[in-house]
Design goal:
- The chain is α/β, with parallel strands linked by helices and 489 residues long.
- Helices cover 24% and strands 24% of the residues.
- It has helices at 77-85, 88-99, 140-144, 146-156, 191-207, 234-251, 269-277, 280-283, 304-313, 337-352, 386-390; strands spanning 3-4, 22-29, 37-43, 45-46, 55-67, 70-74, 109-114, 162-167, 214-216, 258-265, 288-292, 318-323, 357-362, 401-408, 423-425, 428-430, 436-438, 442-447, 450-455, 461-467, 483-484.
- Strand 2 and strand 3 form a beta hairpin.
- Helix 1 packs across helix 4 (146-156) and helix 6 packs across helix 7 (269-277).
- The longest helix is centred in the middle third of the chain and has 18 residues, at 234-251.
- It is globular, with a radius of gyration of 23 Å.
Length: 489
Amino acid sequence: MRTISLVFALFLLTQPVDAQRRAIVYTTAESTSFRLTPTDTLMFKPSEPTSEGKVYVFVDPRKTFQPFIGIGGALTDAAAETFAKLPAARQEELLQAYYSADRGIGYTLGRTNIHSCDFSSESYTYVEEGDKDLTSFSIAHDLRFRIPLIRRAMAASGNRLKLFASPWSPPAFMKDNNDMLHGGHLRADYAHSWALYFAKFVQRYRKAGVPVWGITIQNEPMAVQRWESCVYQAGDERDFLKNHLGPVMAQQGLGDVHIMVWDHNRDLIIQRAQTIFEDPEAAKYVWGIGFHWYEDWSGGQQMYENVALVNRLYPDKHILFTEGTPATFDSTGYGRWSLGEAYGRSMIHDFNSGTEGWTDWNILLDERGGPDPRRHAYRRAHLHQFVLLHRPLLEVRPSRRTPDPRVAEPQHAAHHGVREPRRYGGGHRHEPDGNRRAIQPCCRLRVSGDQLAATLHPDGGLQGYLRTTGCRSLRIDNVRPLTAPRQSL
């Protein structure tokens, strides 16, 4: 038998501690009824001398990091078609659960597809076959399901939702394989038309009442898939941006649209960033870089450190997590604790690496992981336990800079992150040789000479500390999973 403990603190610091001495503890714990349940009210008091046998979180409100844009999910054709089948009451319930800051988890990011993607019921584009001049351009297809859903999501969010859009492939006639599926490349003689296609998409969506905040150039540009896909080497994406997309967006008066490059996994993000960001004629059009979490598809590990390196090398560019979801659809897995842990682990690492926002995949699918009748051997989907991780974040308004909390090793009262291979959580220390010794199951939050202490939940819990006033900024730091015998807690 084992337990996994994850402990995190939300540090909401805009005023001196003595002006806001009360904190509320919210707990979510496995095998309990605790789901963001208020479990304690704590008071700050003058700090005691530090001890090597205690766990501390040191917060320095004077040091700030990246702004926090928000968290969200994808509004695909499949999600929109499924939403349209729901009764009106369930539609409203879902919208409030996802997008309301008061009654739900307050999503402030959304991603949608530019014409069809792997979660569309059919392959389609916005132009007639061979229309290089785009005279037939029309978003009529999207007006049936997708645009109505996006409008309602935006309204439910209080119009705070930032929407970005990604293409999975240019139209077939613009590609060297004459196929929207199975990879291929954008033909050079259609590069200008494809750039103008982006501009027309943004313009038509805005005219339909859907402001588009940003775009990515290509979803997963190194992947050859059975569904819509297109390959861009790093130099190809750079040159398309520099010579076509950037200038066209500027000429069309769309310089306010945030252009993101890459939009693929963490493994090759550094090379992509170097190639594009170090070319000043390309970099001037780029707001930032997007990434996914599927780099472990071949059996490797998540490469969080690559995101952190991009952040250090190019601090003037922004970083956004643009897609992630469990790779296999399992209709029996709703609410599974391990899913929440996977999301939490990625979010914590990614935000600590400089990421400003985090975008989940489909917000809604049917019980079979569709609709997508065409070609999926696997279906990525989830409509589960986001309240487990997201709700505390909702107390934080986007676009604020985040203060610096650090977790110190129990034997070192210093401003360090927890060093591998030792891991701390749930009041335990995990020794490299597998031996375990109990330490006091308590975490102390120390801010500017004051502190509060909370007992950690022993049954696989998540705890958040929320100030009751002045809540404006957030950073989560050094949350580590711990495997330990239950009886040692």
